[in-house]
Write a structure and sequence with these properties.
This protein is of the alpha/beta class and about 525 residues long. It is about 35% helix and about 10% strand.
């Protein structure tokens, strides 16, 4: 192969943009289109003449307009972007109701083993017996932890799992000639996906108010029950961070009315290994592997939300599922019995299964229970250290895995929950969950998980105390102007939502952000 003698300019001109090489610590990172230009390339490519068009008339008619960059420019751009990305590996994530826990590197190592990472869902079943064995074992422990009779592994996320469980409930009612049941009871503190899932399946949603203690009152549930009710969808521990102490009585009332109990398992991390939901009377519950068993959290990537089912709903579980036939594992692809059918094309996300089972096996039964207890301890520690400065709407009882504050302590300061959260960014912390649950005005929901050390919690608490003290002292500008230390200042979020700019334009006026 002969040397390319075409050559290129040593220092391509960067016009109309800021050069990324001008500073090691830029407050804002330009786009690649602003760094590069269309006239040069970071690699030498020979000129090619194409005489025959093989694209059936689909050849592009406009320039590709990709920016020409050197390899160091491209590499440094993405490294700088990674430094601006907040992640669980860079700091505490106090998001309430999300359980952003540490992802152990051992899990990642196991998920990258060739026998798990390199398989394909269309391989012959005889070549993936090890993977099927792992799925079977994971499913077994999910049922053991929840005391349930069956598990559907294929749902890809929590909301997908809700759909699976509610479809099983719908199939069970139809099998009994109870298709007229078209109402689903949903507490007002529920995740928004609960009523959305019910409505998607054609149910009408009836809201159940929370009592003065932040929990669901059994009397309110009994009053809402009728022959038209198909199910209740309830989270326990609930989204206020409280354990539903009347859950067994609620479950009994629901069953007596001929309905089923769907439990949102988003907060299972608070009770895993300590309380078995099946003992409480649930019929279906999804389990977010990313929230409970440390697989990476959401973000549009591969997820997993297995659903455990009671004995009453087990016959209606979806396909595919793994079944043992002697020493061989089979993948059952065709509907049997009362199964409502196929929920998704394949069985699930293998990497999530490997990570979750690794987490289970490395902790053991006692370790899982200890993780749950530590999560509860950490949340109560934050509550105890902050309750003299912050205000809690339900302050008369211990919390579970998360602590809920409201904005009453900011009354008269001119500072909102959003302002307070923005100021946390200036202090290096990701904000907690804001304005949720909706039952509390100006909600601030904090979940430390079991991952955080006492040192980290103390640093977070001292920062929160300092912010609260400054807010009450009248230093409103610190909050209303925040963040001032982040790469981007406070955005006009209303304008950004109403006039989003989804495509970069070369003209300077068209590039104006919502800032």
């Amino acid at each position: 192969m002969s040397m390319n003698t075409q050559g290129r300019p040593t220092a391509p001109a960067h016009t109309g943009s800021v050069s990324a090489s001008g500073s090691a610590l830029l407050p804002s990172e330009p786009l690649l289109f602003e760094i590069g230009d269309h006239d040069h390339s970071g690699v030498d490519l020979p000129d090619v003449e194409i005489n025959e068009d093989r694209l059936a008339g689909l050849r592009r008619k406009t320039p590709l307009d990709l920016p020409g960059l050197t390899e160091p420019e491209a590499m440094r751009h993405y490294v700088r972007l990674s430094r601006q990305n907040y992640s669980i590996d860079s700091g505490m994530y106090p998001l309430g109701s999300c359980t952003m826990k540490h992802n152990p590197r051992l899990n990642e190592k196991m998920a990258r083993l060739p026998g798990f990472a390199d398989i394909h869902p269309l391989q012959p079943v005889s070549t993936v017996q090890g993977a099927l064995g792992l799925i079977e074992q994971l499913g077994h422990w999910l049922m053991e932890l929840t005391n349930t009779a069956a598990v559907a592994m294929s749902p890809k996320a929590g909301a997908h799992g809700e759909l699976c469980g509610m479809m099983a409930i719908k199939a069970a009612h139809e099998a009994k000639g109870q298709g007229h049941r078209k109402v689903v009871l949903v507490p007002e503190s529920a995740h928004g996906t609960n009523p959305a899932t019910a409505a998607f399946l054609g149910y009408s949603v009836k809201s159940i108010d929370a009592n003065e203690n932040g929990t669901v009152d059994v009397a309110a549930v009994k009053a809402a029950l009728s022959d038209d009710v198909a199910a209740i969808m309830l989270t326990n521990p609930n989204t206020c961070g409280l354990f539903e102490s009347q859950i067994i009585e609620i479950a009994q009332a629901v069953h007596d009315a001929g309905a089923y109990f769907y439990c949102d398992g988003a907060n299972f991390n608070a009770i895993m290994g300590v309380v078995r939901p099946g003992d409480l009377g649930i019929d279906a519950m999804h389990i977010n592997l990313h929230k409970t068993f440390s697989t990476p959290h959401g973000g549009g990537g591969p997820g997993s939300g297995p659903v455990v089912l009671s004995e009453a709903l087990a016959p209606f579980a979806p396909v595919p599922f793994v079944r043992r036939n002697g020493e061989t594992l089979e993948m059952i692809e065709h509907v049997e019995g009362g199964s409502f059918g196929r929920l998704t094309a394949f069985h699930g996300q293998m990497g999530m299964y490997v990570r979750a089972l690794t987490y289970m096996l490395s902790h053991g039964k006692d370790g899982l229970a200890q993780a749950a207890r530590d999560a509860v301890l950490n949340a109560n520690y934050i509550k105890a250290r902050l309750q003299d400065l912050f205000t809690a709407p339900f302050n008369g009882q211990p919390v579970m895995h998360e602590v809920l504050f409201d904005d009453a302590f900011l009354k008269g300061t001119g500072i909102s929950t959003l302002d307070f959260a923005k100021a946390m960014i200036d202090e290096g912390f990701h904000p907690m969950t804001m304005y949720f649950p909706l039952v509390v005005h100006g909600a601030m929901l904090i979940e430390p998980t079991e991952s955080e050390s006492l040192h980290t919690l103390d640093f977070f608490i001292e920062t929160m105390r300092e912010l609260a003290t400054d807010a009450k002292a009248g230093n409103a500008e610190r909050f209303t102007a925040a963040p001032v230390r982040a790469p981007l200042r406070r955005l006009d979020e209303t304008r950004a939502a109403r006039q989003p700019r989804l495509k970069w334009q070369g003209d300077a006026q068209a590039r104006q952000a919502a800032q």
